[in-house]
Amino acid sequence: MTVIPSGGELAGRGGAAGGCRHAEFNETLVLLAIENPRYRQCWGARVAPDGIEEDLYYYCSNIFKSWARAWELKKIDERQAREYLRGFFDSEVPRLFFERHGDWHRRGQNRTHRERFQEFANEEYLRAIKAGPPPRRYEQHPARQSTRKPQLTRLETGDEVLPLHPVEGENRSR
Description:
Shape: globular
Strand content: under 5%
Structural class: mainly alpha
Order of helices and strands: HHHHHEE
Low-confidence stretches: 1-14, 166-174
Mean pLDDT: 78
Strand order of the largest sheet: 1-2
Largest sheet: 2 strands, antiparallel
Number of strands: 2
């Protein structure tokens, strides 16, 4: 049985590089779930409420993480971060995503540079909610199954190689 190391374990082994590898590994798993809807059930409970496609929430998560990472790397400043977040929360799906998965309910004095981005997100989310319904409502599109096969058949995590789907002769129950 293969065990996937946690972010802390990876970071402990490789410092910042280990944390980066863990982030890349996680992003690959999310992309697989976006491309192949059947994998979503492996994450546990639905991440989106009934009636809203889960891939929209996965995509919102990736957008949010992208901006958070840009903030951590000091590629964007507070003005830019808030501008991005205001636009994000002008749409119903990101509001629903953040209501369910954001950290808006845990407000407080954030001390680190990294925590400041979460504080901006919380403030902009609450500002958007107080302003009323979002200008862009949820737009339902016909569900589309992925026509692409997974591009990856395995993930490499430093010392381990993890298969992502049964390969002939491997990972088969007997």
